Amino acid sequence: MRGNIEKWDYFELTLRAEAAGNPFVDVDFAVTFSMGHRRVVVDGFYDGDSCFLARFMPDVKGDWQFVTTSNEPELDGITGGFTCVAPSADNHGPVRVIDPYHFAYEDGTAYHPVGTTCYVWNLQGDALEEETLETLASAPFNKMRMCVFPKRYSYNANEPPSYPFEGEPTHTWDPSQLGNRYYTDIPDCWDFTRFNPAYFRHLEQRILELRALNIEADLIIFHPYDCGAWGFDKMPAEVNDRYLKYLVARLAAFRNIWWSFANEFDLMPAHSLADWDHYFKLVQQHDPYNHLRSNHNARTFYDHGKPWVTHCSIQRHDMTQIPRWQKEYQKPVIVDECGYEGDIGRAFGSFTAEELVARHWQGFGTGGYVGHGECYEHDEDILWWSKGGQLYGDSPVRLAFLREIIEAAPPPGLFPLSTNRAVRDMLLDRPYNGITVGHNGEDYLLIYYWTHQLKFLRLALPANKTYRIDIIDTWNMTITEADASASDLVMIELPRRPYIAVRVERVE
Amino acid sequence: MRGNIEKWDYFELTLRAEAAGNPFVDVDFAVTFSMGHRRVVVDGFYDGDSCFLARFMPDVKGDWQFVTTSNEPELDGITGGFTCVAPSADNHGPVRVIDPYHFAYEDGTAYHPVGTTCYVWNLQGDALEEETLETLASAPFNKMRMCVFPKRYSYNANEPPSYPFEGEPTHTWDPSQLGNRYYTDIPDCWDFTRFNPAYFRHLEQRILELRALNIEADLIIFHPYDCGAWGFDKMPAEVNDRYLKYLVARLAAFRNIWWSFANEFDLMPAHSLADWDHYFKLVQQHDPYNHLRSNHNARTFYDHGKPWVTHCSIQRHDMTQIPRWQKEYQKPVIVDECGYEGDIGRAFGSFTAEELVARHWQGFGTGGYVGHGECYEHDEDILWWSKGGQLYGDSPVRLAFLREIIEAAPPPGLFPLSTNRAVRDMLLDRPYNGITVGHNGEDYLLIYYWTHQLKFLRLALPANKTYRIDIIDTWNMTITEADASASDLVMIELPRRPYIAVRVERVE
Q1: Could you give the angle at the alpha carbon of A329 between the alpha carbons of A326 and A330, nearest 5°?
Q2: Taking CA atoms, what residue in A is nearest to B339?
Q3: Disulfide: which of A42, A254, B54, B404 matches B31 by Cβ 3.0-4.6 Å?
């Protein structure tokens, strides 16, 4: 049983036991991992076929011991251990919040989320899912919003290959219910006391494949796109709790997991605000690794100021509000949904690439983060936003360019203008609403002009420092060093077209 | 003394009197105009050189009589009359609010404000002022925001040709005070008890020249762009009151006057909220014609819900909020400042024409109104936004195109989507934030897609009506009839580029 596990990978213990009754609900099974005085208790779970598993993500190198506890004698008192070794080059650990604006991997490596959304790419069958992974391998994204449950919505008429609970749908879904969030019947075809382990094993496979691509899985636990198809949006309270604990037991050992409690939580009338608070606290209590936790809104924000929320996960269309939310919540802001590139007959999925890229620059430019999605009409309804597949749009290559620029900025990243009065004074023509300014102290500024087309930028730079000034065309993806004597009062000629950024960086 | 005055033109009475003391403050002079049982009292004013004037704008055809009252015997008890005749073709009377969204001229002719801003065009000397009038003669604008007082600001370093009060500046202005709204000294060079009538006669000349061009004068009574240059932003309370009454006495008889109490009232620390309320009520009490009254914000709105406010005059950059303000205040919304086309080093004055035109369509498309301005760098600092002169931008021709389309819609104009559930149901792909929809009942819809690039529009039109559907390219200014069987379920192919609008109009 002793093997080598790299730090932030996971150790998996598999035990077999022929338990009486329903092992999903009747068997308690946990494992205590220890090293020296440290003890970490993880919940195990039933994986079917008489197999009980427990997974553990070590965060310290060295020899770890474990002992099991269970109400099932066959699973109780088993001991063993493993050796945790150095992580491989691409393994930087889970993502953490490091200050009120920024994230980083646990090993200190900078992490700036450049996210995309393919809500149910993992429920489309192997051929399309593998195509999605292939696309992701050369895409700029390092975070994926995806759902546990299947989705019923425009362009999403298909059934998933399997279901999360034991049972098969016996009812015929009524298409007139599409978009009906108040559909009240819960189909009686599911045995909510028995998960379908194969469903979750498949989910895990896809999450681990994302991990191999250095993509965080921003896992959406509940969502409102059910409309009477399956009833997973309105399960009984004890089922929701069991589901949450089962998810944590199965997935928390994967370093790239983030818990997103819902997409558009405020469109789910079966869950009260107190329910959401309860879900957060339940997961916080059971997840030994303290993975990131958020709750994504449609119209009304969940209160991101609550102590169990690690960062703001927001749907809004006006990125100039990001500094206000940063100030209000004192937590990193990710606008996961600001609208998507596409051409479908819905406002959210029909933005030009220019607009989506501009919103990204507006958000990233003040130390916030913005997410991508794509909704081009497709003969087989394979839209990236929901099913993955291929990317057809003009934004991803430009988001790759943006990512390079953001990652080249000094750690931990950019801060909004309001946090530094000296930087404000360097900008002689006072910027405000609509011009985006971020900085990292006085030695690094990024100014983004969106649909402004300035002729000049005037700066008053400290006389005792030397700066390099670059004019960045965010659409054409060019970086041109400005012709300016980069000290003291600087007058920089700009190209008088939209989508221009200026980077000011100290060189000595 | 009996002559013919056309309806909504003005009758002017001039009397001479050698009054003792200071005629600006010591002489009360009013004239009561009457026709049948109707009596209208107007305040007269001292115009210098022993001349006392009173002006009256008749709104009913027929014979009017007048009698003067004064504490100066030479001005008291004078009687006379004039005949009010039919208005000429271009004279439709003053602009009124006709419903919670719309304006119209008093004769019922539709009026949709397509405004521009040249804050102090009237204080630039005759050559430039005449050039401005020439530009306006072929521009699409029917409203002009302009100030009574001179302006000191970036690009506004010049002194006005004359001053509103007796006196000459004796102090040297300190350029370091530019932008200092808290400058507290009031220069002692003015005799605030004596107006300079020539200054106001010049203002009147320019307002009447606008009237001849069918342009409403949205007159800005106070503004914060003084910075210690003249002190007109912080005059004593009794001077402010006398100034307001003098303005009303001189200008209220001009049918194209609107009272805009301030530009950026919330940047004027010398005036409290109670002061602004008082100014509104004072003007409401003295203006016999009930001209439009508003107060324009920088950051914080003046409460447009107050009963003396006729419409919302707003500075904001997000036009998708207009339906919210319409609903909240139940008064017409004009966003006089959403940003200006230009290339100067300030966010407000550096938008592309595309962005400014798009914001206009967003606003007009829901029955709101948006204003134009232009700030291109100029060798002599002649920027349209402040001084007038020529227009260099690409937006005016497109605003003329927009104006034609809005004026071709059924009166009284468009309403926001929220006011008609049946229209909402006609839009099969539910629009929301970011797609602009206005209507005039079920027989006229205007959908504006901004930076969306839809492939299709699907409509469910009433089967018993026939519609014409036009695809409008708002940037290239083309109107193309859609290839669609315009009844019942309609699928319209769209050009998949931004800045497209669709007009649906019943033909039988």
Answers
A1: 65
A2: A434
A3: B54
Judge whether A172 and A396 are in contact, CB under 8 Å: no
Chain B residues within 8 A of A431 when measuring between CB atoms: 346-347
What's the CATH number for A105-159+214-408?
A: 3.20.20.80
Instruction: Give the pLDDT band of residue B1 (cuts 50, 70, 90).
Output: very low
Q: Which among B318, B449, B455 is the nearest to A377, CB-wise? A: B455
Residues with Cβ within 8 Å of A44's Cβ and at least 6 positions away in sequence, in order, are A13, A29, A30, A31, A52, A53, A54, A68, A70, A75, A249
Strand (E) or helix (H) holding B241: helix B237-251
**CB-count exposure of residue B161 (10 Å: 0-12, 13-18, 19+):** middle
Residues of chain B with C-beta less than 8 angstroms from the C-beta of A429: 344-346
pTM greater than 0.80 (yes/no): yes
Distance CA A336, CA A315 (A): 6
Q: Please determine, for the modelled complex, whether the ipTM score is greater than 0.90.
A: no
The side-by-side arrangement of strands in the sheet containing B143-147 is: B115-117, B143-147, B216-222, B257-262, B293-294
- Segments making up each domain of chain A, as ranges: 4-85, 105-159+214-408, 420-506
What chain A residue is nearest to B459 in terms of C-alpha separation? A345
Nearest residue of A to residue B450, measured between CA atoms: A351
Cα angle, residue A90 at apex, residues A87 and A94 outer, rounded to 5°: 75
Which residues of A touch chain B, with CB atoms under 8 Å apart? 179, 317-318, 320, 339, 342-348, 350-352, 354-355, 377, 428-435, 449, 451-458, 496-498
Mean pLDDT of chain A: 94
Which among B212, B244, B215 has a CA at the least distance from the CA of B9?
B212
- CATH dotted code for A420-506: 2.60.40.3950
- The C-alpha angle A35, A41, A44, rounded to 5 degrees, equals 125
Residue A150 to chain B, least CA–CA distance (Å): 22
Least Cα distance to B255 among B200, B298, B207, B314 occurs for B207
Q: Per the CB < 8 Å rule, is B453 touching A350?
A: yes
| A317, A452, A455: residue with CB nearest B347 | A452
In B17-142, alpha helices (H): 23-26, 126-137
Render pLDDT for B229-260 as a digit per residue (tens, 0 to 9). 999 999 999 999 999 999 999 999 999 999 99
Q: Rounded to a whole number, what is the distance in Å from the CA of B508 to chain A's nearest CA?
A: 27
Q: What is the CA radius of gyration of chain A?
A: 24
Per-residue burial over B102-113, b = 16 or more CB atoms within 10 Å of its CB, e = otherwise: bbbbbeeebbbb
Handedness of CA A220, A222, A225, A226 (dihedral sign): positive
Cβ atoms of B114 and B142 within 8 Å: the answer is yes
The letter for the amino acid at B121 is W
A432 CB neighbours in chain B (<8 A) are 347-348
**pLDDT tens for residues A279-321?**
999 999 999 999 999 999 999 999 999 999 999 999 999 999 9
What is the CATH code for B112-408? 3.20.20.80
Could you tell me which of B155, B153, B244 has the C-alpha nearest to residue B195?
B244
- CA–CA gap between residue B284 and residue A431 (Å, rounded): 38
Looking at domain B4-85, does it have CATH number 2.60.40.10? yes
Minimal CA–CA distance to B339: which of A347, A339, A431?
A431
B4-85 and B420-506 agree in CATH topology: yes
Taking every pair of Cα atoms in chain A, the longest distance, rounded to a whole number of angstroms, is 80
DSSP-based three-state secondary structure for A268: coil
Closest CA to A371 of A508, A181, A218, A205: A218
For the cut 70, the answer to whether the pLDDT of residue A396 exceeds it is: yes
B238 Cβ contact partners less than 8 Å away, ≥ 6 residues apart: none
